[in-house]
Design brief:
about 150 residues; alpha+beta; Aldehyde Oxidoreductase, domain 3; four-stranded mixed sheet; about 35% helix; globular
């Protein structure tokens, strides 16, 4: 079980390989990788800010909640901060479990909670200037199913 908040990029394949290395108790490995999306074609960068220590503690709490709800062998959350360009990886979640249902549900749960409860502040930098990104109603609504 690991949580990492970092500026540097990560290698999704290498992270998944490390998560399952030497393990024979894992029957399902589910991963999600989030990328910086540019819907309008005007985004130059997405800047993420956080408070070190507080952010890791909050992510660890979300991960602990997933472990309490599902039978997981392991999990990994990586979230980047700093300026990121469109197309760059922003985060990943991986869950390992004896069975696929637990791995899928736990990964989905983690994503819903990370999207709306992780203490990151996002600012979009574009051709027209910079603006903070507001929380989305859809993300908040997704939490209600848990």
């Amino acid at each position: 079980m690991a949580v990492r908040v970092q500026q540097q990029d990560f290698n999704l394949g290498a992270e998944l390989d490390a998560l399952r290395e030497g393990r024979t108790d894992i029957g399902a490995l589910v991963s999600f990788s989030g990328l910086v999306r540019d819907d309008s074609g005007d985004l130059e960068a997405l800047e993420l800010e956080h408070y070190p220590g507080m952010t890791e503690k909050a992510l660890a709490g979300i991960e602990a909640e997933a472990r309490a709800r599902w039978d997981l062998n392991d999990s990994l959350i990586i979230h980047r901060y700093g300026p990121l360009k469109p197309g760059e990886q922003i985060m990943m979640v991986a869950t390992a479990a004896p069975h696929r249902k637990a791995a899928f549900e736990a990964a989905d749960f983690l994503m819903d909670f990370l999207k709306s409860r992780a203490p990151f502040w996002k600012k979009e930098h574009g051709v027209a200037g910079a603006a903070w990104v507001d929380a989305k109603e859809d993300d908040e609504a997704a939490l209600k199913r848990w």
